[in-house]
Specification:
13 helices, single chain, 252 residues, mainly alpha
Length: 252
């Protein structure tokens, strides 16, 4: 891509000693979690079905840990992209060049996304340990990675919007986290409608004496809320929440 902002920012980040240090710590954290929850259970003399089941849960824990870290880190990475240039009084100089506002925004966004994508891709060896147990296929692992990358891109975009709207980096950072939190709450509201809708469909089948079966219904809340999307993804891949959900509601 012919984007000088992206090229300059990426080169500056990769030449920094902090970048390999962060990637190493990130990978080491996931490696330790993978060892104690997945690989370590195969180091004994025998392996039980319970050990294999817990190792599949360890795969889900690694996905959830990465999701939490991305949501926590991503908004702050782009919150100072535009406001920082404004504070250094270099934004006007960039805008009068041939770079343009679009390339400036895309360059800042893609540089931060590239770094987070590199961190997520470094987790593939640890996530692939679930293939030992057969708890998930490699295609499902790739789907989980794609979901994490999409979540990172969305959180980075929120931070970049706040950076463009507010003058100070501190204000933009605070508003980025508040915006992410607000989006998480607002997109959670349709859950009540979804539960009621599915409950009504099952009740209708009970009234007419029909046999309960899987309903072809896509919940709105699970489509627009990232946390519920992650919950649905892991439930479909590992079935780790199935028994827990039936204790509360057949609608869920």
């Amino acid at each position: 891509m012919n984007n000088p902002i992206f090229a300059f920012s990426a080169i500056r980040r990769m030449r920094s000693a902090r970048t390999p240090l962060l990637i190493t710590l990130y990978s080491l954290l996931l490696a330790l979690l993978a060892y104690f929850t997945v690989y370590g259970r195969f180091m004994g003399a025998t392996v039980t079905l319970g050990d294999m089941r817990l190792s599949v849960d360890g795969y889900a824990y690694m996905i959830m840990l990465q999701f939490a870290l991305l949501v926590l880190v991503a908004p702050a990475m782009t919150a100072g992209s535009i406001s920082g240039e404004r504070e250094r009084q270099t934004l006007d100089l960039l805008l009068v060049t041939n770079t343009g506002a679009v390339k400036l925004v895309l360059g800042k966004l893609l540089e931060s996304f590239g770094f987070l994508a590199l961190m997520v891709m470094c987790s593939l060896p640890m996530l692939s340990l679930v293939l030992i147990t057969g708890g998930a296929t490699f295609a499902q692992v790739l789907v989980s990675v794609a979901f994490l990358l999409l979540t990172a891109l969305a959180a980075l975009s929120v931070g970049l919007v706040c950076s463009s709207l507010f003058q100070r980096t501190v204000t933009a950072t605070v508003m980025s986290y508040l915006s992410v939190f607000a989006l998480g709450i607002v997109t959670l509201l349709p859950l009540w409608h979804d539960v009621k809708r599915i409950g009504d469909l099952y009740d209708a089948m009970n009234i007419v004496g029909g046999q309960l079966h899987t309903i072809e219904y896509t919940p709105i809340s699970f489509t627009i809320n990232p946390a519920l999307g992650l919950f649905s993804l892991l439930a479909a891949q590992t079935q780790m929440f199935s028994s827990m959900l039936w204790q509360f509601s057949y609608s869920l």
